[in-house]
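Sample entry (288 residues):
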Amino acid sequence: MKFFINIVLILGLVLLGGCSNYEPKMATEVEGGDSMPESIIATAAVEHMDLTLEEMVTLYPHVISATCISKEIQAKGGIATAVMKYTVDEEYRGNIGKEEIEFNSYEGDLFEVGEQIILCVEPVGDVFTGNDYYIGAPLYLPENPKAQSYIHIPKDIHTQEDMRNAIVKYSEAHPYEGEVLGDYIHSTDLDEICDESEHIAEVMISEIEYTGEEHMWTNCEVIKNYKGRLDSSSISITMPKDSVKVGESYIVLFNKPDETAVFYVVSSRNSVYKSESTEAVSIKVHYE
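Predicted structure, serialized as tokens:
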């Protein structure tokens, strides 16, 4: 499901294409074969390769000019990420409504405190950290001397003002029609959470393999499966920290981040219930 981009980021899956290890490729032509200014860089994910600026802008509900005001390197589960905080200097597309925003980023080594960049931003619910936004594609300003490009920029864009005007024009031509990702993860509506959960099962916690700052990796024995197909009676589920205890049983609502994942992740902040709780009993009766 789409909202899992941030969840799997916490678990150490690099969603931005392994940016710091990714070998840059210069995109040398724009539409019509015109050469592109080498003073423009876009450190976009691999899925953005060969897009035009207009195409990329239409993918995101927010595009902002932002200044990095702090950077803190943190290690979570043995994976180093940078907690980046930015001021929102100007909104080119959409309305975030905040003066400051914060992200967990694997691209922290690319940006320095005091540096101004353009961020293509997507709101996303995060079960564990509560982060409200995900950086889909950070763009250096045209004036920045770091000269690589991953997307096709019109040849007449040479300044930040040129970039701003182009983004505003594209935004007016292409209103964002997507959904806000993961809104329901904060829901207390049990019916809504059940609908958004691919799997529902009663499990017994056999082991807590790892505890992080916001989450824990648990190994579980499936007592009874109520929704979705499980390949094994022994599964691993990442849950909110301190939400379960070894030897106890729970009704858990969860999803698989992607088809290749070997673990599951709870579907919301309210997806774990003791087996004897009112909510758990209600779920059992509904899915019996």
